[in-house]
Amino acid sequence: MKPHVVFAIAAAIASLTAVLLVRAPAPSTSADSDAPADAPASTVAPVIERTDPQETLVSPAPEAAAEIRAPLPEHAIESLSLEELQVPCGCRWELHQRQVQYEQDLRNAQTKDPGWAYETEQLLQQFVASNLRSHAVDEVSVECRTTFCDIRANGSIEAATAFEEVIKEAQIEPWSTFNSGRQIRTTPKDTNAASYQALVYRESVPDDLVLPDLPEPSAEGSCPCASDAWQGRRLKLEQEARANEIKDPYWAYEKEQRLNTLVADHELSSVLESWTVDCRQTYCDIRATMTGEEQGGFNQLILEIAQDPTLGFGGNWSVAASGIGEALELEARLMRAPDTDR
Question: Helix, strand or coil for residue 63?
């Protein structure tokens, strides 16, 4: 399977669970790849996740319709309302899980390339462990096969950014034989402890090495809510609905003030060229302009805000990035927790 390069930006879809990641130009191996809408709740961090839009102040949320599993033509999807498009999509999660398992099976089926794997494991182990020692990260383990290396460690949630930076540095060391792609995820264990995992990919593989070839899972046509047409229309209608939301005067202004203060007081503010905060009824948006190298810090900031119990976001957030070269436009959406007083 050919690799893609995707930097973990979260799609604004329902109950998205994923890991902040950077896709490799190597074979797509996304055990932590973009989780689809309606995935079961997860504690994966950076948690790129959001709930379905909550009811507005003026009308209750409609009763959820049944999931559609029969084939549905695209022209029929275009006639569906937002409420119909927001039905649970369990089959989409099932398709995603099959793809994740397929990619994990591909990795598991690889054997070690003895001319590359053992030496690379030693170099990575020494580099990562020594550079993370000051951040109280321990239990570093490295396993390399033929096309990739899997690096794991334990530490604090706050050290997740340091782990990511060390992996990036390892990829450009003189001894490195990796390309620039990587997948990284942090999984909290409790309020401050976490485990980290990174996948990095070999720049080139000798032609005489045989890689495993497994049949890809079939998507079939029985899950229309997983289609691009369905999700595209849903996102479009959700964006239109949120754009038309008025501010909740009892919630939005106070949240904007607090979020502006949090961003201004954060160490990241020194590298932000600009930022704005806009809160409505069901969400707050934080938009920022900065260099691409600092996106990991922005994601960490949003994670801290989302997990602050005094702010009422319930851990539901997403980050989208756009831009060319070093300039990067970032937009974070924090969803108001369902139990927040209205």
Answer: coil
**Tell me, what DSSP letter sits at residue 216?**
P
Sequence-ordered list of residues with C-beta below 8 angstroms from that of 178, at least 6 positions apart, any chain: 149, 170, 171, 200, 201, 202, 203
Q: What is the distance between the alpha carbons of residues 157 and 46, in angstroms, rounded to a whole number?
A: 9
Separation of alpha carbons 223 and 69, rounded Å: 5
Tell me which residue of 151, 171, 150, 153 sits closest to 108, measured CA to CA.
Answer: 150
Are the beta carbons of 311 and 305 closer than 8 angstroms? yes
pLDDT in tens, the chain (342 residues): 433 333 333 333 333 333 333 334 444 333 344 444 444 443 333 333 333 333 323 333 344 445 555 567 778 888 888 888 877 777 777 777 888 888 888 889 999 999 999 999 999 999 999 999 888 888 899 999 999 999 999 998 888 889 999 999 999 999 999 998 898 988 888 878 899 999 999 999 888 777 778 777 665 556 777 778 888 888 888 878 878 899 999 999 999 999 999 999 998 888 888 999 999 999 999 999 987 667 778 888 999 999 899 999 987 888 888 765 567 888 899 999 986 665
Which residue is listed with tokens 């402890």?
A: 193
| Residue 198: Cβ within 10 Å count | 27
Pairing status of strand 193-202 against strand 283-291: unpaired
Cα distances (Å, whole numbers) of residue 39 to 68, 89, 338: 16, 8, 18
Coil/strand/helix, residue 180: strand
Q: How many CB atoms lie within 10 A of CB 275?
A: 19
**Angstrom distance (rounded) from CA 339 to CA 342:** 9
Length of the chain measured in residues: 342
Residue 83, helix vs strand vs coil: helix
Please state the φ and ψ torsions of residue 268, each to the nearest 5 degrees: -70, -25
Helices and strands (DSSP H and E) totals, the chain: 8, 8
Rounded Cα distance, 185 and 172, in Å: 20
